[in-house]
């Protein structure tokens, strides 16, 4: 790694410290080239273990890059601006990608930190992130890498201002790649004046490059402005993005004026104001690294490790790869997947899947990051985090998701048994975050099963034990009962029969049932059963009488835990009077206990029959956080108000009461209400 630095004493430690361990361990060369510095940049850099420091009298970035090349011994190489934050994992991912030999240039993904920036600056960088060039070009990230063959294409860095733009134009599209890893963090200017200064510097670099026809470079640069303008217009998808585009185009035109020529390292100072909070805490969380998966398909490459961690960390079936990919296939449209693998000294301590999407709070678009599966289904989340690492992992996750441009991050709905709720609140208190919502929206039910079925029955009240035995005896008198568990390949075909029985049970009551109420849920659950059949995780527990199916319990198994999804039973008032529903649940517990299952997550909501059968109720937490200032906080607060209004007017008043009183036919739940359940 080669890092040119000019008077970067305020930020160089922040940049170098995450790379120190990899450099000291010999995984990378870490070369800092101080050029023309009049501050303590060199001294601060030398204090970082693993860093090699060179000093040049001349203040020139191209000269610093060339001096770094002369001192370096390893290929491939990453060139990093001194004010850019990047993890060692991201650096190694880029170098590994270049080492394959199929591309000549590569860089990590990047994100723009606009915290504290003016509205004009935020508008400009929101548009930049929407442009297709943001995902393909080598410029704009403050970091790019070259293989030895790629470097040979131009030899030494020319004495021009825009080195990243120069490098980008040396290679065809198939010769360069943006590696989907943890993004580098580019701190934007604080105000429009500072932004304009660096835009003019960038434009001056392009003018310098076009003045010398290097490998036909002039011809390639001529249409850049027009192509960018077209891309900006095409990226507009609403009023907010239209306003952003106007700002972007206005700044792009303004930067063309007052462009001088100088080799002095001009740069923005507003983004370099560094408090002690910006410097990594060497005693707290310094060993954590975060790997980012940019596509739900990327989970296939870590499937075994991910699922194993989810199971053994005490997390849920909802975070297994099959569940996540099934949910995404049916509900992931117009959302971006962000999977976080958090490690401490190489050991996995967190596996968190987020989706980033736009939610409308009335006429205002809000960019929300939430756990995958939080809407459209009925989960109860226990995020996959190793015990003792909750606060560190939560902090890292919030930082990464907010860095994608999110206005707010939701962890809802959280199990009352999970320590993550407390970790989120504590993180917000100490990290300048605003808690937009922290409350309990009803309970969820959990059954803790003993080692034997007799012990379970003894734990019930005398009345419940007698009722169970009496109802079982009555059913045995009426039918020749049999009980069986359906799993594996048989479960795939069995699902259709279950949905028919479930729907017929609710139809008698004038309701649609789960698959009718929740749009897309039947197709989603069908795929879920299909995906999980081979692992045996999808289960149906059936009671038949004289060969006729009387009741079915549908759920999933992960380790020693069962996740109840839905029941179904025949539409027979006589059987209802015998407590068929409760008997079906208790007999399922018998099978689960015999199979070594110790916990049953029975889902959200209060149900008297569950409590009578031994369920413990725990609060179902809702937690939403945002930055503590700026428009993001305002939009997040507006989303919470809008969500509460929709829940009151649409769901509680219209869906539950007025619609029934007016005797209107049942209809599926409204998607805008579903997506705002935060």
Structure, explained:
The chain has 678 residues and is α+β, with helices and mostly antiparallel strands. It has three domains: 2-278, Spore Coat Polysaccharide Biosynthesis Protein SpsA, Chain A (Alpha-Beta Complex); 288-444 and 620-675, 3-Layer(aba) Sandwich (Aminopeptidase), CATH 3.40.630; 450-597, Gcn5-related N-acetyltransferase (GNAT) (Aminopeptidase, 3-Layer(aba) Sandwich), CATH 3.40.630.30. Helices cover 42% and strands 23% of the residues. It contains 25 helices and 20 strands. Strands 8, 9, 10, 11, 12, 13, 14, 15, 16, 17, 18, 19 and 20 form a 13-stranded mixed β-sheet that branches. Strands 4-6-5-7 form a four-stranded mixed β-sheet. A hairpin with a 2-residue loop joins β9 (336-344) and β10. α13 (321-331) runs antiparallel to α20 (521-532) and α14 (390-403) packs across α15. The longest helix is centred in the C-terminal third of the chain and has 32 residues, at 630-661. The relative contact order is 0.08. The model is unreliable at 213-223, 258-266 and 274-286 (pLDDT under 50).
What is the number of strand segments?
A: 20
| CATH architecture type of the largest domain | Alpha-Beta Complex
| CATH homologous superfamily placement of the largest domain | Spore Coat Polysaccharide Biosynthesis Protein SpsA, Chain A
Radius of gyration: 29 Å
- Proportion of beta-strand residues: 15-25%
CATH class of the largest domain: Alpha Beta
CATH fold description of the largest domain: Spore Coat Polysaccharide Biosynthesis Protein SpsA, Chain A
Overall mean pLDDT stands at: 87
- Give the CA-based shape: elongated
